[in-house]
Amino acid sequence: MAPAATLISAALAFTGGMLVATQGPIYARLSMGLNRDYLIAVFLAFATATVVTGMLALFTGSFRNLSVATLGQLPPWVWLGGLFGAIHVVISMQAIPVLGVTLFLVIVVIGNLVGAAIYDHLGAMGLEVRTFSFAKGLGMLLVITGVGVVARA
Fold first, then answer.
1. Could you list the residue ranges that cross the membrane (predicted)?
2. Lowest-pLDDT choice from 11-25, 43-57, 58-72, 113-127
3. 3-class SS at 14?
4. Using CA of residue 100, residue 102, residue 103, residue 106, what is the dihedral sign?
5. Which among 79, 27, 74 has a CA at the least distance from the CA of 49?
6. I need a labelling partner for 99 at 20 to 30 A (CA). Which of 47, 58, 74, 91 fits?
């Protein structure tokens, strides 16, 4: 990958991470305003996302590429992404008021890293196989150590 593309991708990933950090507190506040009804809060959050992305897809012409045949060719497990996202949102609504955003997210990062290492190593979900290594394990151990530091702070 070209250095400029790498830099842009890294900047976008950083921005995405910053946006993810806002979601938990927003969802937690939404839930509190709805008498701690996590399910209606998740429904409203995902309904908002559905409407906005649906409008963008409509205005950009993305729906022209959508067909029943295309949907039928997808592996059934691709539909789990939305379900897992909803589960994560419910978890964040419940955990962030207890743990705080920072501790919650560093724990999430550990979960992300462990899952990512497994998925890469296995080539799961059509990914390229990227074998687990001592260096990756050491890096993950350093992150876990960092979580311990954050938890004690």
1. 38-59, 71-91, 97-119, 131-151
2. 11-25
3. helix
4. positive
5. 27
6. 47
Three-state SS for 34?
Answer: coil
- The residue extents of the domains of the chain are 13-99, 100-153
Separation CA 114–CA 140 (nearest Å):
8
Residue with tokens 């506040």: 29
**Residue 136 structure tokens:** 């990756």
Are 63 and 57 in contact, with CB atoms under 8 Å apart?
yes
pLDDT of residue 59: 95
Chain position carrying tokens 């419910």: 90
pLDDT digits (tens, 9 = 90+) for 36-61: 888 898 899 999 999 999 999 999 99
Asked if residues 124 and 118 have their Cβ atoms less than 8 Å apart, the reply is yes
Q: 93-113 pLDDT, tens per residue?
A: 888 889 888 888 888 888 888
**Angle at alpha carbon of residue 111, lines to 80 and 5, rounded to 5°:** 80
